[in-house]
Specification:
Diaminopimelate Epimerase, Chain A, domain 1; alpha+beta; 344 residues
Length: 344
């Protein structure tokens, strides 16, 4: 049997969010930085993402990470994050999954009890600290890209809802954060289907009505996620809250969401709700948790930013190969609206 494409992947989930990490089958991608490589894939070679994430090989609730050589001397490798509809500059669950796959397959040497190294994401360098024991990566902490707030209590007109007040922040992706309780949302799994539709409606409206551009990289722009934020509470002396993030074209992030947690911490810090060094536990719709901390303040031009550490766990679920038979009628897959929303 002759195949025209063969991709080796490691299946991993981080606190419930399913990822795959490409460990073979792609040599490299043109570009000097990971952002340039991501842009090349997006504009010149998107058939790789479609091949892996569209049906019959992929599914809407899935992400794929492509590990590549980095030209940055500070990084041991780079990675590009492919989601079901687009490429993103940074993702917490994808970072945790990629680190776990690299260490547990030996692509990066594991040192016990702690392994430290740096990866290059499209959004910038990400310093990693992995707790390891008996050959297992037990948890991953990463120092995220600088996070900052675009605006607080911004009005958005949402069809069928009226005027909502949203906070807008960047934590590796750009979020519109909504007060769940103000909308009567309990953040229970039974609400999952309805929240997807509402979250996508809010995101589309906010993206049009609140244009935003990253101050250092104009290629990073536009609100692309809705975060429904549950009320802040104190649990065992630690600030804790529930949330869920709606990922386009219409699904929940199964994890507490690393970039969403980062964006929320930037908002909380600006509101005076949390200080540097305080622990924040963020829960997902399915009850899994990430731990976040603001490490320090910084600046991008005149904008105050925060540097956030996120800690979470991941587990390898599979080792397999995706192949393309030359006679396969679906080399870039297909999408049906029973699981892929119309217009995606």
């Amino acid at each position: 049997m002759r195949f025209s494409r063969m991709i080796n992947v490691v299946g991993v989930h981080a606190e419930g969010e399913h990822n795959e990490v490409i460990t073979g089958g792609v040599l490299d991608v043109p570009g000097r930085t990971m952002f340039e490589k991501m842009t090349y894939l997006e504009t010149q070679a998107d058939e790789l993402r479609q091949f892996l994430l569209h049906e019959p090989r992929g599914k809407v609730a899935q992400c794929v990470n492509l590990v590549l050589p980095s030209s940055n001397p500070a990084a041991v490798a780079g990675f590009i994050i492919m989601e079901s509809e687009y490429y993103v500059p940074m993702s917490g669950t994808n970072t945790i999954c990629t680190v776990t796959a690299l260490l547990e397959t030996g692509m990066v040497p594991m040192k016990e009890p702690v392994t430290r190294f740096t990866l290059e994401a499209p959004g910038g360098l990400v310093a990693v600290e992995a707790q390891c024991r008996d050959g297992k990566c037990e948890s991953v902490s990463f120092r995220n890209v600088p996070a900052f707030v675009f605006g607080l209590k911004k009005p958005v007109e949402v069809q069928g809802v009226g005027t909502l007040m949203v906070d807008v922040a960047y934590g590796g992706m750009i979020y519109a954060m909504v007060d769940a309780a103000a909308l009567g949302i309990a953040l229970e799994p039974s609400e999952a289907r309805d929240l997807v539709e509402l979250g996508e409606r809010i995101k589309r409206a906010a993206a049009l009505q609140i244009p935003v551009v990253h101050p250092e990289n104009p290629g990073i722009h536009t609100i692309n996620q809705t975060l429904f934020a549950g009320p802040l509470r104190i649990e065992n002396g630690v600030k804790t809250a529930k949330n869920t993030v709606i990922v386009s074209p219409g699904r929940h992030d199964r994890s507490p969401c690393g970039t969403g947690t980062t964006a929320r911490l930037a908002i909380m810090h600006m509101k005076g709700q949390i200080g540097i060094g305080e622990t924040f536990v963020h829960e997902s719709l399915i009850g899994t948790r990430f731990v976040g901390r603001i490490l320090e303040e910084a600046r991008i031009e005149s904008i105050m930013t925060v540097i956030v550490s996120i800690t979470g766990r991941a587990w390898i679920t599979a080792f397999h190969q995706y192949v393309l038979d030359p006679s396969d009628p679906f080399p870039t897959g297909y999408k049906l609206t029973d699981t892929w929303p119309a217009g995606s």
